[in-house]
Specification:
about 325 residues, mainly beta, four-stranded antiparallel sheet, about 0% helix, about 50% strand
Length: about 325
């Protein structure tokens, strides 16, 4: 738990395995600490972390593992449910994963004796992203290389199914627009679907391909960001179906894009994992250059803290955390 100057991460936490994916819980969980989940080759770890930026008597980071779930297959994606509550009796931790065997697993635990999981099957190729309904937590949306976006009930029944024109790379459900779903495809098209009418109502186009990752801004529902090819791009959906701003960012192809949860001008991108050192960058729309550049040994996963300008990335037997000034 030390300051790690060599890779300029502010904090690191040692892990048992290579970290494929990491996700801060984006919802209020009823506890002062921050829930974080990370996945490796065959397990998911749920932990709690508190940072010195939040509590003055902590030096650096305080991290504690709450529970490790055996997964049996590589974890590709993790999504938190808003129903996760640590201040209820008993506590509830609920999340779902996508895995290398093309299945979704829904985990529910009280962090004691009750640990259940349900398998949701239907995709016929790799699942690239998944997300819970951000208010009710009663449905899960997923997108896959099989050219579909599917919506599932918690019982595992498919409640909606959209055919895509290329692999689905990202899916976002906005807490302020829960009747809409944003789906980004590898061919550079981002569509918004009306879930009541079950049809597309708006589409955006990137000028670059392949589009690898897109994200709907939490602080401004008109803003969408993505990475495609070597570039990041930002749309204002009230103005045009083409990006307002585009900038080359990662020479080795860009991989992930995530808006900060606390500012509509702050976002992070990563280069491709699997290089010896993958680049991680934090950008601010008021600055022409990245405001922070980090290097991660084979970095994968990217997640923002719910209330701090702080990012987590998975590394080789490590979680790495970067902090920036806004």
């Amino acid at each position: 738990m030390k300051q790690d100057a060599t890779r300029n991460a502010a904090y690191t936490v040692d892990c048992e395995d290579y970290v494929h994916v990491v996700e801060f819980n984006p919802f209020e969980s009823g506890d002062s600490g921050n829930l974080i989940a990370y996945g490796g080759s065959n397990y998911v770890v749920i932990g709690m972390c508190t940072f010195q930026e939040e509590e003055a008597d902590i030096e650096g980071i305080q991290y504690k593992t709450l529970r490790t779930f055996h997964h049996g297959v590589r974890v590709d994606g993790i999504a938190w449910s808003p129903e996760t509550k640590l201040d209820s009796l008993p506590p509830v931790v609920r999340f779902c994963t996508s895995a290398a065997d093309m299945k979704i697993r829904l985990f529910t635990s009280d962090l004691q004796d009750k640990n259940e999981y349900k398998v949701l099957e239907g995709h016929s190729d790799f699942i690239n992203d998944l997300v819970f309904h951000p208010k009710e937590g009663n449905e899960i949306a997923s997108v896959s290389d099989d050219h579909t976006c599917r919506i599932w009930s918690l019982e595992g029944k498919q409640t909606a199914h959209f055919l895509l024109h290329s692999p689905g790379m990202s899916v976002c459900w906005h807490p302020e627009e829960t009747f809409k779903l944003m789906v980004a495809e590898k061919n550079g098209t981002i569509r918004f679907y009306d879930l009541m009418a079950q049809q597309a109502i708006l589409s955006l186009q990137s000028e670059q391909t392949p589009l690898m990752s897109a994200h709907w801004c939490l602080k401004n529902t008109f803003k969408v960001g993505a990475v495609a090819g070597n570039d990041w791009m930002i749309w204002d959906i009230t103005r045009s179906s083409y990006p307002q701003e585009t900038r080359p960012v990662h020479m080795d192809r860009a991989h992930l894009f995530r808006w900060s949860a606390i500012s509509e001008n702050l976002f992070a991108t990563t280069g491709y994992p699997g290089k010896m050192a993958s680049q991680f960058q934090i950008h601010h729309l008021g600055h022409s250059q990245p405001i922070l550049t980090g290097s991660v040994a084979v970095g994968s996963g990217l997640s923002w803290h719910r209330t701090l300008p702080l990012c987590a990335v998975g590394g080789d037997h490590k979680l790495l955390f970067w902090v920036t000034e806004i």
